[in-house]
Amino acid sequence: MGLDLTVVPPFAGLILQGALWTIAITASAGVLSFFGGIGFAICALYAPAIIRYPIKAFAWLFMTTPLLLQLFLIYFGLVQIGIDIPAFFAGMIGLGLHFAVYNSDIIQTGILAIDKGQHEAGRTLGLSRGQTLRKIVIPQAVRDVVPPIGNNMIALLKDSALVSVIGVVELVHASQLAISETFRPFEFYLAAAACYYVVNLLLEFTLHRIERRIALTR
Amino acid sequence: MTDAKPFVEIRQARKCYGDLEVLKNISLKVNKGQIIAIIGPSGSGKSTLLRAINDLDPLTDGEVWLEDTQVNKKLPHKQYENHINKVRQNIGMVFQHFNLFPHLSVRENITLAPKMLKGISDAEADRLAEEQLEHVGLSDRIDYYPSQLSGGQKQRVAIARALAMQPKVMLFDEATSALDPELVEEVNLVMKRLAEEHMTMIIVTHEMAFAESVADRILFMDGGVVVEEGPPEQLFRAPKHERTKEFLAKHLRANALAPA
Amino acid sequence: MQRVAPFFLEAAWVTLELAVLSTLLGLTLGAIAASAKLYGNVVFRSIATVYVSVIRGTPCLIQLFILYFGGPQIGINLDPFSAGVIGLGINIGAYMTETIRGAIIAVDSGQMEAARTLGLSKFQAVRKVILPQAARLMVRPLGVNINAQIKATALVSAISVVDLTYTAQRYIGSTYKPFEMFILAGVLYMVIITLTGMIVSWLNKRVAIQ
């Protein structure tokens, strides 16, 4: 059959729309995973045992099973017990929680690495433990872990492809729609791959900018 | 002056780490406006004593008083936290390694605690920061970040940060030990100015000359006890105790060897 | 549950096979690309750089789709399992390239100089001095990669390899119990991952002692 890239342009609108949904779900799941990661990290380090252990168990579940399975469980499984979440939100929650668990690990390490003198300086000024954590320790820890968190965001972008299987019409699913009309999988998957590559470059560029901006404040 | 009510008082302080007793029954009275310098070899317990004053290193036994308030009051956890946070607002502390907040600008370092704890407005906070920085001679560095400052400048900002809370007493924990020799003087000058303004100060230091020039009273500590105390001219020129003499002699010799 | 259990166990075996084979392929590709990047000429270096950049810049799922669904268009006809192993292997190979390269770079450059002053050739120095030290640094990150790889194998269910995830989906059709099926699959993944994790940390301890 050979390759014929001219089949792609007529579907450019569909593919671009898919790309926008890919960006939308990556961004929203990214925000969720970032703040969720901070929340989990604080709970895992400082919450009373009754909260800490369930959180740790939950994290362990997420780290030892495939994301695809987690998405299936949230989207198809929860319906069985009466929880029906629209595909986009199921995907966002699945991706967001999955990466929140990984971010939490990184942020915990970051918090523990903050010098004891920073805690002491805060407490000496009269700040409470909570205020010291919130205003002094956590902002620094988050800055310190920007590079590994950034890597997770890049992984999240690529893993967002998985939400196509629960019916979100992002890049992969949009390509599949085009393929079902043209029977040209190679060209359209290649087009989708190219879109991912470009979005990935933009994301890497943005992360690099952020890293440079905070370099001064570390 | 002699029978004035003490401003800061430590009563029979004991501190143990397991079997190791690092403070052995130390008592100390500091009057308002007085400047105390604590000297002694490393491991003598001088930093531990200083850090007990704001309960950063809680005592095993004994009491710490600031005016009419017991600093290390035994209270249930929640109440203790409230109590100590209030007390610490009155006790400024300067650390050996500055402990500036690297993610905040100089201005924000100074205004963070006053804004959060005293609820002052942004405009007031800005004025406070400018005022304190002028005091330490760093007005032009207000929007810098700590990573852009020299060690001496960092320490001067740290002093400004502590002063911004308008503390009743200032604690200095080897404030110049981590500095390059040429940067020590600028920090000493700031501390001298504070002394002239009659700030109550307790200074742990390795610098005998500075201690002599600024302090009203010197404490020599060794092995967790105060071996000898007195006015600087007496303690440095005519020490009574054998251990004091030894320590000062060693120190003089080390200084003689050090490059000028 | 009892009726489907044997099928799930069989599928778990497929998942394990996929993980092991694709990891071996990935290690080989990673070693080749890492050497190309570090010691190759401009051509090899460029090829390796493009390989790593493209594979790491696009989702694994798309790579599998291009290989399995797009392959026949350019004359590559693979059965699902082979496509799964090759696709996953090519994908993880790009990540392993960076792991291996990082470990080699982390070995002090003084080591290379010392070996060269003794009269060893560059190749001998790499083989006898650099690699043995780098290998130890690689165990932990490779362990992380393998853990990720086991989870990544779930993707091949989308190209109809009968692995754990595919099996779970298939039996949902006949049992109408998605929750139970997914949890059963999840538990088996956990067992596989926990066991591999134990093997890796055991390995890690062994190389650390030496």
How would you sum up this structure, described in words?
The complex is a heterotrimer of chains A (218), B (260) and C (210). Chain A is mostly helical. Chain A is 79% helix and 0% strand. The model of chain A has no long low-confidence stretch (mean pLDDT 92). Chain B has helices at 46-53, 77-88, 106-118, 122-135, 151-163, 181-196, 208-214, 232-237, 242-257; strands at residues 8-17, 20-30, 35-39, 61-66, 69-70, 91-94, 169-173, 200-204, 217-222, 225-230. Chain B has a six-stranded mixed sheet, sandwiched between helices. In chain B, strands 2-1-4-5 form a four-stranded antiparallel sheet, covered by helices on one side. In chain B, a hairpin with a 2-residue loop joins strand 4 and strand 5. In chain B, helix 3 (106-118) runs parallel beside helix 5. The mean pLDDT of chain C is 87. With 210 residues, chain C is mainly alpha-helical. The interface between A and B is medium-sized, with 22 and 30 residues.
Topology overview:
The complex is a heterotrimer of chains A (218), B (260) and C (210).
Chain A: H1 12-46, H2 49-63, H3 67-80, H4 87-113, H5 116-124, H6 129-144, H7 146-159, H8 171-182, H9 185-214
Chain B: E1 8-17, E2 20-30, E3 35-39, H1 46-53, E4 61-66, E5 69-70, H2 77-88, E6 91-94, H3 106-118, H4 122-135, H5 151-163, E7 169-173, H6 181-196, E8 200-204, H7 208-214, E9 217-222, E10 225-230, H8 232-237, H9 242-257
Parallel strand pairs in B: 3-8, 3-9, 6-7, 7-8
Antiparallel strand pairs in B: 1-2, 1-4, 4-5, 9-10
Chain C: H1 5-39, H2 42-57, H3 60-70, H4 80-106, H5 109-117, H6 122-152, H7 164-175, H8 178-209
